[in-house]
UniProtKB/TrEMBL annotation:
This is NADP oxidoreductase. One of its GO terms (cellular component) is plasma membrane. It holds the Pfam family F420_oxidored. GO terms for biological process: copper ion import.
Length: 248
């Protein structure tokens, strides 16, 4: 499968490594140009390209950039095939990124992304911490395997995205249509809590749209105080324990 990845931060980097190691034809790009992409991202065979080239002639486009950078992605996506599966992995953190009025008013993150791009979008890999994603993948059938919810309006897109999630070492859970993907956004019980196959359904069902933004901000404040840095990526065990205490 041909996969283009826009963004090589912590999640994009791991996706590039996992999919290229699995035999997929992977192209990656960032906003600074191919020469700036670290060799670690490319170690399993992914190719560094420009953003336009990364989305050209691919089966899947994975967008892994801060949501305030989505307007920069819009013109790039004109190069992508109209039938390419588009997957959004991003999350909204207004205290870290520029505020987006529609999201401040409660619009669902990936619904907003789909509207900006003018094409269907699936939501996946946003609900797992970067370090957990890098090290905690396990084979199917492993007890207490971590689950990742997947949302998309088209059932075929949802199933295709779920298959890719399984390839990365996590149980894919059908989370329904994109409008319901707020249940896997920051501040909800599914978000960065390493929920297992047995926990994910309940975690999604008990998400509280009114309370999740406050819980999101509380979590950020806890980690900022602990590490004296709002941009820090916490250790895996610390992140899951703190988020479980706040979100679940």
């Amino acid at each position: 499968m041909k996969i283009g990845i826009l963004g090589v931060g912590n999640i994009g980097k791991t996706l590039a490594q996992k999919f290229s190691a699995g035999g997929h034809d992977v192209k990656v790009a960032n906003s600074r140009g191919p020469e700036s992409i670290d060799a670690e991202v490319l170690k399993n065979g992914a190719a560094a390209t420009t953003a336009s080239e990364a989305v050209r002639d691919v089966d899947v486009v994975i967008i892994s950039v801060p949501l305030n950078r989505i307007p920069d992605v819009v013109p790039v996506m004109s190069e992508a095939p109209r039938d390419a599966l588009v997957i959004d992995t991003s999350n909204y953190y207004p205290m870290r990124d520029n505020k987006i009025e529609a999201l401040e008013q409660g619009q669902v993150e990936s619904v907003w992304v789909a509207e900006q791009l003018g094409r269907p979008v699936a939501k996946a890999w946003n609900s797992i911490g970067a370090k957990s994603f890098a090290i905690n993948g396990t084979p199917a059938g492993t007890p207490n395997r971590i689950a990742i919810p997947v949302a998309a309006d088209d059932p075929k897109d949802r199933q295709a995205t779920m298959a890719l999630v399984e390839e990365t070492g996590f149980t894919a859970y059908d989370a329904g249509v994109l409008a319901e993907s707020w249940r896997q956004q920051p501040g909800t019980p599914c978000y960065c809590t390493d929920v297992t196959e047995d926990e994910v359904e309940h975690a999604l069902a008990t998400a509280d749209a009114a309370r999740s933004p406050k819980r999101r901000e509380l979590s950020v404040a806890v980690f900022a105080e602990r590490y004296n840095d709002i941009m820090v990526t916490p250790e895996v065990d610390v992140a899951a324990r703190v988020n479980r205490a706040i979100f679940m």
